[in-house]
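Subject: Sanity check before I submit

Could someone independently write out the structure tokens for this chain? I want to compare against mine line by line before I put it in a report. The sequence has 133 residues.
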Amino acid sequence: MLLYLTTWLNVYQKSVILNYMINQNEESLNEIFHALANDTRRDMVRMMAMEERTVSELAEPFDMSLAAISKHLKVLERANLVERVINGRTHICRLKTESLSQATEWLNFYEKFWSKRFDLLESELMKAKRKEH
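---
Independent answer below. Compare away.
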């Protein structure tokens, strides 16, 4: 019985924790990429990358209501890309770079993967070219 419990804790628990972390990471990435899939939200992120903005400042360049801008901000907040601080009636929004870093890490992994694949392709093409001559 003790051996079974020890095995369960050492093997099963680790896989449960790892799966939970992977699932949490996937959900987080899904939220981030969903939020960034919209051009209005990407423009808002670009604006906040320069400096924190009020909701009114974020709404200014867009032809939409404050309610629509607020909905876009809520999507960015759910993705943990934006932090909103309320000071009286003024809502100040700032970019949270941790989530963007998470997305960047994911993209960098695949950039390295495809770079290696293209390097292999180039190598094979060079071999084929040498064989022709």
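---
OP: Matches mine. For the report I'm noting this point. The longest helix spans residues 97-132.
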